[in-house]
Amino acid sequence: MTERLESDDQQSGDQQLDGLQPDQQQPGDRQPDQQQPGDRPTPRPAPAPGPVPKPGAPKPGAPGPAAVPTPPPAAQQPPAQPSAATTSPASAPALASAESVARARAFGRVTEDGHVYVVVDGEEVLCGQFPDATEDEALGYFARKFDDVEAQVALLEQRVAAGAPSADMQSTVDHLAEQVGQRTMLGDVKALESRLEALRPAIRELEAAERAAHEAQRAQNVAAREAIVAEAEQIAAQDPQRTQWKQSSARMAELFDQWKTHQKSGIRLGRAAEDALWKRFRTARTTFDRHRRAFFSQLDADNAEAKKAKEALIAEAEALSGSTDWGATAAEYRRLMDRWKETKRASKKDDDALWARFRAAQDTFFAARKADNDRIDEEFEGNLAVKEQLLAEAKALLPITDLKAAKRALGDILDRWEQAGKVPRAHMRRVEAELRTVEDAVRQAEDEKWQRSNPETKARSNSMLTQLESKIEDQEAALSRARDTGDTKRAAKLEGELSTSRQWLETLRRSAADLR
Predict the structure, then answer these.
(1) Can you tell me the distance from the alpha carbon of 186 to that of 144, in angstroms, rounded to the nearest whole number?
(2) Cβ neighbour number for residue 337 with a 10 Å cutoff
(3) Which of 43, 48, 45, 147 is nearest to 92 (CA)?
(4) What pairing do the DSSP bridges indicate for beta strands 115-120 and 108-110?
(5) What is the spatial distance between Cα 432 and Cα 370, in angstroms, rounded to a whole number?
(6) What is the per-residue pLDDT for 302?
(7) Which long-range contacts (CB under 8 A, 24 or more apart) does 369-378 make?
(8) Considering just the CA atoms, what is the radius of gyration of the chain in Å?
(9) Which residue, 51, 262, 266, 332, could crosslink 125 as a Cys pair with Cβ 3.0–4.6 Å?
């Protein structure tokens, strides 16, 4: 019956292994049929259905070691466990190294029928069965499973220490803890569980640090987006009449490119924050575009109006270009220029073309006037020679010594001056100014003579002399008294005042002499 039980267990185990696909097997828990290169064929183990009490300390209700060779009758035999395995010479499991096997001996044992036990907290727990194999092979198989999980734990510890991304670390710990908890491996299981539990707070710290870094990066990205939005809003808020549209448009395009770059490569800001910033940025761009379209639309209208007004001025200027009424037409051109300056500017291209036409009409008129003046100047060259001679005679009268004779000679010069006629325009102001200098000198001499002969002036001068002489007498008397009394301070002051009064008296006496 024992042989029948083992046969049923082996068949059930074969069915389970045959039904397990390679991609369904967990890493570190290779099934015995996954033969590795260099492994020799060994019998395949059959894990037991659950833990068995340690022989020295049986648990209540559990059969002792003596009950294992005597299974119940066939009618009461429990169904075969699906995890059992049978020996298959075609494939063999990978075994642990000799060093791992030696280390595993401290944590378990193998029975004669191939059952492998691991000691956990002082109690033996059945890992599984590896029948028809040596003790080292049975230990090597379950030690290899321990080594695989331990290697994964060590790798996870390295990742945590290096600060690797923690996205799947907690799930990895859970998976490995589940494997260790099944007690299907041979080794220091409690130490491995302790290492796994020690990883949990470290992973939580790593997750917290990642969250903090993520929040810091998110805050930085929010600040960068906020700066983009703020600058866009500042550009959109400019006075359209003062905006440099070319530079502002280029800058707005740069800001949009920066936004797209942050959106593609930066950390997500959160839907609410990103939507709010995008709404503000979109509003600023829309406002800027609306202002730009309105500005250039109005500019086009203003350009059309300015062009129409300036074309009307050009028509007037061109109509006057053939006039020979030099004075009146020149004045009209000055009024047209004033109206041109008051008119709004058209576009640069149109305004330059309109100005060229307006200037051409003026040039035509002023060129004709200049030609006519040049002709007249040639006719007046002889008059200039006569007036140059008259100027020489007038300058000879200076300085004036005989006012009567000077006035008579200047009158004769002025009569001949008028008879000489006009001079060329280039010399007109000069000769007139030189003659006016002589006229002013004669007039000044005449005024001075009248001032000297004015009775009222003489009387006023005599009165001032009398008053000043009386004042000087009083100052001299006061000075004499101050000296007699020894008041040196007052005496010094009176001496200064007396000196000033005497200077004024001398000046008045000279003026009175001139009036006589």
Answers:
(1) 8
(2) 15
(3) 43
(4) antiparallel
(5) 22
(6) 85
(7) 369/326, 369/330, 372/324, 372/326, 373/425, 376/422, 376/424, 376/425, 377/424, 377/425, 377/426
(8) 63
(9) 51
Cα–Cα distance between 67 and 13 in angstroms, integer?
Answer: 23
Q: What is the pLDDT of residues 120-177, one digit of tens each?
A: 988 999 999 888 888 888 888 998 999 999 999 999 999 999 989 888 899 999 999 9
Encoded tokens for 91: 């494939």
Q: Please report the pLDDT score of residue 71 as a whole number.
A: 36
pLDDT (tens digit per residue) in 449-488: 777 665 555 555 667 777 877 888 888 888 888 888 888 8
Mean pLDDT along residues 77-94: 46
Say if CB 95 and CB 137 are below 8 A apart: yes
Handedness of CA 46, 51, 57, 59 (dihedral sign): negative
CA dihedral 252, 254, 256, 257 (to 10 degrees): 170
Please answer whether residues 119 and 55 qualify as being in contact, where contact means their C-beta atoms are separated by less than 8 angstroms. no
What the block records as the tokens of 47 is: 């894990």
Q: Buried (b) or exposed (e) across 222-246, using 16+ Cβ within 10 A?
A: beebeebbebbbebbeeeeeebeee
81 DSSP assignment: P
